[in-house]
Amino acid sequence: MGAVHAKAPPSGTIRDSQPTGIKTTSTPVSKKEENDVKLNIDKLPVRVQRIVVDGLTRTKDDIVIKEIKPLLNAKTFDELVHLSYNAKVKMERLGLFKNVVIAIDVSKDHRENGYEVLFEVQEFRRVDGGIHTSITNNDGSLDFQVKMPNILGRGERFSLDYTVGTKRTHGYGAYFKKPLNNNPDIFFGTTAYQFYGEYPWSGYKQTDRGLAFDLTFPTILGSHNIQWEGVWRDLRALTRDTSFSVREQAGHSLKSSLKHTFTIDTRDNLVLPTAGMLWRTSQEYAGLGGNVEFAKQDGMFQWNTSLPLDAIFQMSLAGGLMRTLDPNASVSISDRFFLGGPLTLRGFNLKGCGPHSHDNALGAESYWLAAAHLYSPLPFRPGKGRFGELFKTHFFINAGNLCNLDFNNLGASFQDFATNMRWSYGCGVVLCMGRIARLELNYVVPMRVQKGDKANPGLQFGIGIQFL
Amino acid sequence: MQNLSYLYNIPLFQPPTSSKTIGKTWGYYHARNHKNNLSATQRSIIRTLLSATIFSPSTIWFQIEKDRLSFKVLEMALVADALQATIGASEPWPDDVLLFQQYKAEQITLPDCTQCLAVEAFLRMCGLRFNVKCKTNAEEMSPSGKVPFIQAGPYLVSEFDPVVGFVGRKGFSLSRDMSDTDRSEMRAYMSMLENILGNAELYMAWLNPEISKEVTKPRYGCSYPWPLNWVLAWRKQRAVIARLTANDWSSKSVEEVTEEVHTCCLALSEKLDKKKFFFGDSPTELDALVYGHLYTLLTTKLPGGPFTSVIREFQNLAEFCKRVDSAYFSD
C-alpha cells in the first residue's frame, strides 16, 4: 500500500474508503480553499492509545490480544493500517470471526497524534450446518454436516459429517481441528470415522473404522503433513462371483500407520490451472502395532505453462512403490495401487489395468503414470468471459504401467515396467465444476493394451477430483 | 416368499409377518412329541419341503397353532447356495476340493469345530477326495459367514446341509438307499441335533462366563492384534446371545441346558441301540453330524464343562465315536 488518498468529506461522515472493510475517518485538516486535499499519510506519525474489540462472546481474550497487540507499536498511519489489516485477516483465517470491520479514529481526548482502533467483530454461530453434494472419483455423494466453528474460543473447529454415496457407500465422521501457536497454517487435527464402501472393480466391500491424528505445518519449501492413523478394516467379498483371490483376503485387519505428505502447490486453479506447479510426495509406514506391515512411497508432479492463443500446456507425472515388511503376507488389496480410469489413464476402465482375476482388479505394488495435455478454449469462444471459461478442449496423451516388482531382480522388473506399458491418446472437453471437481468427455484411442486390461476405446466420460 | 411358493408350488398357509412368530421346528417337535397333532396334509407338505433338499431343515421354521400351520424360510443365502450347487451338478467331483476352516489347535471355537468335523466326517464317509485348508479368516471368507465351506472348482458351498445337497448332486449320497420314512426320521434327528446340541454348544461356549472368558473369547480373537481381539470376540458374543435369545435359550440355566443335552443324548442312544450306525451297517448324514458334535464335546476340555460326563453316561454313543474315528479318521 502506497499513499492513501483521502478526500475530506463535505459533511465529515464516515465512509468506506476501501473494499477490504477498513473504515478510515479523515484526520481533521485545516480548511483550505479547495475542498479536495491530497494528503500523504504514509509518514503521518501515530500513537495508538486505545484498541476496542466489540462483539466478543466466546472467543478468548488472550488469542485476540495476541493478534492486536502489535498495533500498539505502529509508528505511522500506514503501518497502523497495515497491522490492522493483517490482524483482521489472521483472525478471520484462524476461524475466530465471520467478519471483522476495522474503524480507525482519532482518540477522544484529542492528544497529539492519538488514535484509537475499533474492531467490530462478528462471531460465527455456535452451530452451523449444511447439506451439500460432493464428488469423488466417479461417485457422487450427499454430505450432511453439522459444524461448530470456534467451539472452544481459540479457533478450534469441530464438525460431524454423514455421507451417503451413489454406490451404496455411506459413512460418518467427527473432525476436530485446532490451530497451534495462533498460526492458521499450523494446525493439529484429529478425526474418528466409520466408512462403508463398495469397490466393484475389485469385487469387495469394506467397512473402515478409524482414528487419525495429524499435524500440518508449512516450511519455506512447502507444506508438510504428518499423520498417524489407526484403522480397523473389515473386508468382505462383494458378491458370490467375487474372485477367490480377492475372497482370500476377506477378514479383519488393523492398520496403524505413520504418513508424511509434502506438498508444494503454486497453481492458480485446482482444476484448470494456467500456470504453476504441484509437487506432492507421501511416505507411509504401516506396522506400528496392528497386523498390516508395509512401506509405501507415492508421488506426483504437475507443471503448467501458458502458451500463446490462450493455450495451456500441462505435464504430469506420478508413480508409486510399496513393499510388504511382513515376509508371511502380501500387501492387502485395499492398500495396493490401481491404474486406469477416465481421469487418469484414459482409454481404460476404472482400475482396468494390471493383474486381474475373474474380472476383479487385483492391484499391484508399483505403478507409474505420465500425461501431457494441451488445453485451449472452446472453438469460437462461446460465452467468453462468462461460463465459457469453465470449459476447455484438450488434446492429451497418457501412458502408464502397473506391476509387481521382484525385489530380487530389480533390473528385469524395471525393464518390464518400461516395455509393458500402456498408452493412449485422444481429445475432449473438460468442464470445471465448483472449482474442485472436473468433468471430462473424451474420445480416446488406446494404443497399447496388455493382456487382461479392460480397454475402453471411443467415448469416455469421467467425473472426479483426482486427475492426471 | 411369493417367488419361492411359486417356484416350488407349495401352498403357503398365512406366512408369518415377523420373526417373532417363530415357533418350534418340526424336527424338534417330532422328536419330543410323538403324539403330533398335525393333519395328514400338513405332514405331507412338511415332508415335501424337507425332502426337497433345496432347503435344509434348519432353514425352515414352523409354527403350529390350533389347525393352522405357518412356516417361513430363513437365510435365503442358503437357498442361493443350493441353487448354485444345482447348476454345478453336472461336473464330476474335482480333484482339488478344499475344505476351509479355522486353525484347530489355537483358533477354532467349540460350536464351529463341531460343524467342521461333521462336514469333514461326511466327506470322508462319502469317500471323496479333499484337503483341509486352515485359514485364520475362514469365517470371513465363507459366503454365508460361517465355517466350514468347501471350494469345488468355481463353487463355494458353506455349512453342513448345503454341502450335503451339493455332494448329493454330484451323485454321492449316504441316504440314497433309505426308505422315505427312514429319511424323514433321519432329518428329524438331524434337526434335533442342530437345535439342541447346536444351541447347547453355543450356550456353553459363549454364555458360560468362565468358558467364554477363559477359552472361547481368547481363542476367537487369537489371530488378531489388540484391540481387535477383544472387539471381535465381544461382537461375536453379542451375536450369539441375540441368536440364543430369539430361540429362548439364553434364559435357560446350566442345569436346564444339561437336561436338554441329556434328553437329546438319550434319544440318540435309544436310536443307535446296539447297531453299528444309526440306520444299520452303513453311515448316513446323521452319523456324520452326531460324530461331529459328540466327538468334539467328548474331546474338548473346558473348565467346568458338564457335557462330557453327560455323554459318557451313554456307553454306546462314546463307542460310536471311537468306531467312526478309527474307520474314517485313521490316517
Overview of this structure, please?
Chain A is built from 4 helices and 23 strands. Chain A folds into 2 domains: 15-123, membrane protein fhac (Ubiquitin-like (UB roll), Roll); 200-464, Porin (Beta Barrel), CATH 2.40.160. The radius of gyration of chain A is 28 Å and the shape is globular. With 468 residues, chain A is mainly beta. In chain A, a hairpin with a 3-residue loop joins strand 14 and strand 15 (294-306). With 331 residues, chain B is of the alpha+beta class. Chain B has 3 domains: 2-74, no CATH class; 77-169, Glutaredoxin; 180-328, Glutathione S-transferase Yfyf (Class Pi), Chain A, domain 2, CATH 1.20.1050.10. In chain B, strand 3 (98-101), helix 5 (110-126) and strand 4 form a beta-alpha-beta unit. Mean pLDDT of chain B is 76; it is low at 1-36, 52-59 and 72-81. The interface between A and B is medium-sized, with 17 and 17 residues. Chain B: This is Metaxin.
Task: State the end-to-end CA separation of chain A.
Answer: 39 Å
CATH architecture of the largest domain in chain A: Beta Barrel
Secondary structure: helix percent of chain B: 40-55%
In spatial order, strands of the major sheet of chain B run 4-3-5-6
Largest interface chains and counts: A-B, 17 and 17 residues
Query: How many separate helices of chain B?
Result: 14
Main beta-sheet annotation of chain A: 16 strands, antiparallel
Main β sheet profile of chain B: 4 strands, mixed
Strand content of chain A: over 45%
Going across the major beta sheet of chain A, what is the strand order?
A: 6-7-8-9-10-11-12-13-14-15-16-19-20-21-22-23
- Mind telling me the C-alpha Rg of chain B? 19 Å
Instruction: Please provide the count of β strands of chain B.
Output: 6
Mean pLDDT over the full residue set of chain B: 76
Order of helices and strands of chain A: EEEHHEEEEEEEEEHEEEEEEEEHEEE
Output the number of helix runs of chain A: 4
Proportion of residues in extended strands of chain B: 5-15%
- Regarding quaternary structure, what we see is heterodimer
Question: What is the CATH domain class of the largest domain in chain A?
Answer: Mainly Beta
Instruction: Choose one word for the global shape of chain B.
Output: globular
Broad shape of chain A: globular
Protein name (chain B): Metaxin
GO biological process, one term (chain B): mitochondrion organization
Domain Metaxin glutathione S-transferase (chain B): 262-324
InterPro entries (chain B): Glutathione-S-Trfase_C_sf, Glutathione_S-Trfase, Metaxin_GST, Mito_Protein_Transport_Metaxin, Thioredoxin-like_fold
